[in-house]
Amino acid sequence: VGNSSVLICPPKSNVSMVTWKISPRVGGPCTLGYRAGQNKTNTTNCSDSMNWKFTIYPKPTLEIRQVGIAHEGNYTCEVVTTEGNFHETYQLTVLVPPRLILFCDEHGNPTCEAAAGKLAAHISWVLENNSTLKEQSHDNGTVTVLSKFTAYRANGANTACVVYHPAGNQSKSIAC
Questions:
Q1: What pTM did the predictor assign?
Q2: How far does CA 33 lie from the centroid of its chain?
Q3: Could you tell me the pLDDT band of residue 58, with boundaries at 50, 70 and 90?
Q4: Cβ-based neighbour number of residue 175 at 10 Å
Q5: Which of 21, 68, 62, 64 is nearest to 45 (CA)?
Q6: What are the phi and psi torsion angles at 7 (to 5°)?
Q7: Class of domain 99-174
Q8: What is the pLDDT of residues 4-17, one digit of tens each?
């Protein structure tokens, strides 16, 4: 989330036309077309965050700026050459790093929350793993994972929570 993503079609010689057909999970489809002979581009129903990325050597490259969950979906590139048509399909999945929240609950138990991440995070505790776990799915595809440390001898001791996620790992410690 928030970064740019670049998708590249198979590089071919003698390209006459390139078309990106985008089917996001949310919203309607969009297309971007490029005619090499006329050096023309055309965009239909695409957001401003999606556009061609042209470099010194023209490749059929799509750039998505400020990637968000709404960009998830299938991206198919069709390259038309004198040798035939070539397709490349990507399935874009957006990772959202969770917010790590660590607090003491009303009973003095350390509680670790990995809020609104995509994919669901894994939570563990340093030194012991005596905990309860709950997951809550949200409408936007994110998941909040809540883990409560339940070891009785943790009172007053520093306890560390570690959140493992494909977008990056995080840890915090607390004494309750």
A1: 0.76
A2: 25
A3: low
A4: 11
A5: 21
A6: -115, 135
A7: mainly beta
A8: 999 988 788 888 99
